[in-house]
# Entry
Amino acid sequence: MNDAGDTVHVVDDDAAIRESLSFLLDTAGLKACLYESGHALLARTGALEPGCIITDVRMPEMNGLELVERLKESGVRLPVIVLTGHADVAMAVEAMKAGVIEFLEKPFSDDALLRAVDTAMAVGKQAQGRDAERAELQRRLAELTAREREVFDAIVAGDSNKAAGLKLGISPRTVEIYRANVMTKMQAHSLSELVRMALALERA
# Structure
C-alpha cells in the first residue's frame, strides 16, 4: 500500500481533528506529522518528508487555498488533500483548480480519507519519478559541449544532417559525428528516444 517512509502532513487549527487524523493514519501504518497552521508547515518547507499533505480549507490566518498557493511558490510539490465543510465547497473546487489532488466533504468516512491518501501517495511517487528522470537528463545535457548542444537542438527540431550542417556552418559528415556523440552522452538508443528526452527537459 504505502512505503514505510511515507509521511502525511496534517494541517488543521483544531487539535481534536489533528489527533483524530493522527490516530487513524497511525492505525493504517502511516506516519503523521501535525501542524496547527499553514505557517507552521511552511516553516518546514525545506525539510518536509516525502508523502502528502492534508489541510482544512477554512483556517484562521491562512486558509487551505492560500496554503496551496504558498506551497507552489515555495517549490513544494507534495500532493495536497483538502477537507471542506458544505459551505466551503466552492473554495475546495478553486483549490482543485490550483492543483489539489482531492477534496473531502465533512463528515467523511475513515475509508474515504485513506483512499484519498493512497491516491495522493501514488501521484506523489509518479511525480518523484519524473523529477528524478528530469534531473538525470539535465545532468547528461550539461555534459554536452556547446557544439554538441547545437546539434542536439537541431536534431530534436527535426533537421536532417544536411539541414543542421547548413544551419551550423559545418559539413553533414561532421554533424553525423556530433550526432553520434550526442546519442552516446544522452544514452539515447534511437532518435525517438532523444526527442522524448528533449520533451521531458522542456517540461522541467
Q: What stands out?
A: The longest strand covers residues 51-56. Residues 132 and 188 are 17 Å apart (CA to CA).
